[in-house]
Write a structure and sequence with these properties.
Elements lengths: L7 E5 L3 H12 L3 E5 L3 H9 L3 E2 L3 H5 L4 E4 L3
Parallel strand pairs: 1-2, 1-4, 2-3
């Protein structure tokens, strides 16, 4: 895969570490989908340009890569 290829990535857990990963992936132009149980973390991810999934299973169905992060 080319270094500049845009990927569709899923992140489970968008707290301190996961949120930073989401922001960096969006800065790099990747499409990011997030699942988190914390409403504040979901809102931060959405504000960074990520789309939200209701469950981790929702990410598995459409993401090329899933990054699981637990704070």
């Amino acid at each position: 895969q080319a270094a500049d290829a845009v990927m569709n990535l899923g992140v489970v857990g968008a707290g301190l570490m996961g949120g930073a990963i989401v922001e960096r992936l969006r800065e790099r132009g990747h499409a990011v989908q997030v699942c988190d149980i914390d409403p504040a973390a979901r809102e931060r991810a959405r504000s960074a340009g990520a789309t939200l999934a209701a469950t981790p299973a929702g990410l598995a169905g459409c993401a090329a890569v899933i990054v699981a992060v637990v704070d």
